[in-house]
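Recall the central idea of this unit: under ordinary conditions, the amino acid sequence of a chain determines the structure it adopts. In this exercise we apply that idea directly, starting from the sequence alone.
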Amino acid sequence: MLRLFSLFGKSAAMNALDDALRASGVHPLLVPEAVKITVVRLLKREATAAPQEARFAEAATLLAYCILGRDPFVESNGARAADRADERLEAAIAAGDSVDARLILLALHAGLIAPDIADRIDVEDR
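Accordingly, the structure predicted from this sequence is:
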């Protein structure tokens, strides 16, 4: 792929998301650029007063949980963070249409989701 965008550098939003992914235990190079662009767009559409870095950290945490699966996520982030991510996953599944649900669906469709997380999602019921 041509690195046309590297001529201008990454946007501040993409750098913030990369930092948040790294802090959550996922190297940013493991997440395709298209997925990261979609995450940035999803979060920019969301009307919230939270600072951008906090929103990216929340999204990256849930995305990392979906990508890594529970046990590797616990190793990187601790059991407490895994429990919170698990609660968000359950709430997103129950809600059906939220930013968290869209992030989970994005990970699923991008083929990034861990098998133990994918087994918990029943897409056919939606």
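The chain has seven helices and no strands.
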